[in-house]
Design a protein that fits this description.
Blueprint: H1 2-9, E1 13-18, H2 26-35, E2 49-54, H3 62-74, E3 85-87, H4 103-124
Parallel strand pairs: 1-2, 2-3
């Protein structure tokens, strides 16, 4: 399967997810489940990951972020603990062309990605 092959070749996994009813979208959960099968052939195994969740509300995708962390723990994906990335008010952060226009969010995401790069190198060197 293409997903499993791509996952196996990845140095790290960056999950960006909206929040749907305090959890992740069904398609994301299904992809995680499919990539972890058949038993003994978990393509996610040991891959360092980070999560960015977003919602239109003030809770900022907290539920999606933590539900995803639970699933990733079960399939042995070491997920970066800090910094956490919860992006609230997502609809107001982009212009009509989809360009991120909020400078503080840009700065935060730049710092987050720098931390993720260090996380991937840390796990890869173990």
């Amino acid at each position: 399967m293409a997903l499993s092959k791509e996952t196996q070749n990845a140095d790290g996994l960056l999950f960006l997810t909206p929040e749907y009813n305090r959890s992740v979208p069904g398609a994301l959960k299904n992809a995680i489940d499919v990539g972890s099968r058949p038993y003994g052939e978990n393509s996610w195994d040991g891959k360092p990951a980070a999560i960015v969740s977003v919602s239109i509300g003030a809770i900022s995708g907290f539920g999606a972020n933590h539900h995803l962390r639970l699933s990733l723990t079960f399939i042995n994906v070491p997920t970066m603990a800090q910094p956490e990335a919860y992006i609230g008010g997502g609809a107001d952060l982009f212009d009509e062309n989809g360009k991120l226009i909020n400078d503080s969010t840009k700065d935060f995401l730049k710092s987050f990605m720098e931390s993720f790069e260090k996380w991937v190198h840390t796990i890869a060197s173990e």
